Amino acid sequence: MMLETALIRPRLTDYHGVTLAQEDADFAIPFFNEDIPLYVDPFLMWRSPSQQDMALHGMLMSAFNHLGQLALNGKQDEAIAALIIASECDEVGLGASAKRKGKRIGCDKAAEILSIFRRIPHYATYGLSHIEEVQFFVEGISKDRISDFACSFLKSFLIDFTIDQCAKLGIATVAKTVPNVWDVRARRFTDVATSLPIDPTDDRPLLLVPKRWLRFMPWISYEDYFEKYCPQDDISHTAELLTRVEVLNYNRDNYGVVAAYIAAKERSRDDAKNDPLFSQILVRSARSKLAQIKKLPTGKTDGADLKYETAVGQLLPSLLYPNLDFAQAQARTDSGVSIRDLIFYNTRRAPFLKEVFDDYGSRQITFELKNVAEIERTHVDQLNRYLTDELGKFGIFVTRIAPKKAIFRRTIDLWSGQRKAIITLTDIDLEQMVEVFDSRQRDPLDVIVKNYAEFRRSCP
């Protein structure tokens, strides 16, 4: 394994030296020490044409409704204990936590959830059809909690899925005991000994989640219900002051309204799609960003440097996806000078990117943003110091105009003496990339390939 500290915002695949773009993965590639800001949407299993996904949804609802029946049959404490366990699934790393560590619900909240089986006769008799329905009756239950419930009850499948994906990709696994795996036959949580990939920062096991299940917002959601279906005027004469608690109380006494909403969402099932982990901006937005860039003066007047960095930082990730997965924007300091970089994972998806990895060891590629009238020797020296063996020896300036001959000569000398490659993208290059992005006939990466070819032709 490579050292985790060698990379900016390392992912599981990068840590293990696996070349894989997020676009090509069947799962959401997990980061270390932070969650992926997506959530499992159980509805995507329910509406899936896959028999496996439909069966998994049935398993999920059978487990959840079983706890409701336990509470109805005098085993409230047992049901509460299981529901608390199911309310958090740290191994999947989904949600908004910066530390991949969530918090379980308490006894009172678990009891409140189970109370809907007594309060609503339909649930007492038939159970819930969708676990997402809980959010219409219980305060504090939203997309993150629904996602955790789903992952907890389906953890056994996620273990198998993770093992299978790791075997296909050559990702190392370690013997681990995974706590709180739902046993379908025994109908209880148990610990399971298996082998899984780990987070090297704390040795915790990781579970991979099929990206076909993931959305930013559940298809069945309280926000959608409140905006489009909730009879707000029937609940309050001052709808603008209507609170969530008032709506939830109304729903408990008027189950038919919620049932009608669920039926409507089921009828529109064909519109329910998983959300990609990265969405490219629209062509008109790309052109708008380019226009903003071209109008900006060089330098720092009226914050032009920050505006330039922002616009380029929004444009390039879309132009280069999916060949380069965006890692992050990074501010660094060199000799007292603040420098803004865009860091990308080198997926080696294209022949040129494989060449960059093979020749320069670049597992990630740094784009240094410079809103200056001209690139100077000090700028080249700053980027040169950043191009180390660990991060790779290939870097790109994004600036307004091409470097002067003497500066270009400096980059050639770096290649000759240290085998480091520094090329430049100008306003004209960005314009060409947007044109290619618009036409969809070629890849914006081709502009970088062209500039690199011109650079290499000048090298001895």
UniProtKB/TrEMBL annotation:
<protein>
    <submittedName>
        <fullName>Uncharacterized protein</fullName>
    </submittedName>
</protein>
